[in-house]
Amino acid sequence: MTPDEPYLMPSHVRLLVSDAARSTAFYEALGFSCVNRDSVFVHLRWARYADLFLVGMPAGVELPGQRGLGVILCFHVGDEVSLDELRARAEASGAAVDGPRNQPWFTRELVVTDPEGYKLAFVAPSERMEA
């Protein structure tokens, strides 16, 4: 199976966005690949079974309030890219970043806020911390 070949997605996320082109460019700069794009959806993929759909708001319609309040989307980081590289990519795109930081649940995480205000956590395993 090729990385862009369709498959049954057991789960995926849809994000409402005001500017699909801007959001798509941001996610691609982080390393997501664009699987498909049409007039309504942009299908992005971080890795197999880590799919994300951007849903553009219709012209003239606004979504009031802060996006993604209380939700953090998590993506595992493999050997292809480091958290430091992701931080540099996010900062170059003008995103707010926090970390990377070691977490008590034995991960190292970088939290990035996308142009719409959604929070993404890029997660890598960390060494077990001794008390």
Write a structural description.
By secondary structure, the chain is an alpha/beta fold. The chain has one domain (13-59, 68-125): 2,3-Dihydroxybiphenyl 1,2-Dioxygenase, domain 1 (Roll), CATH 3.10.180.10. Helices cover 16% and strands 38% of the residues. The chain contains two helices and eight strands; from the N terminus they run βαββββαβββ. A four-stranded mixed sheet has the order 1-4-3-2, covered by helices on one side. Strands 5-8-7-6 form a four-stranded mixed sheet, covered by helices on one side. Strand 6 (96-102) and strand 7 form a beta hairpin. The radius of gyration is 15 Å and the shape is globular.
Look at the structure and name the CATH superfamily: 2,3-Dihydroxybiphenyl 1,2-Dioxygenase, domain 1
Mass-distribution shape: globular
Sheet with the most strands, sense and barrel status = 4 strands, mixed
Gyration radius, rounded: 15 Å
Number of helices: 2
- β-strand number: 8
CATH class: Alpha Beta
Mean pLDDT: 89
Q: Give the end-to-end Cα distance, rounded to a whole number of Å.
A: 44 Å
Major beta sheet, strand line-up: 1-4-3-2
What would the CATH topology be?
2,3-Dihydroxybiphenyl 1,2-Dioxygenase, domain 1
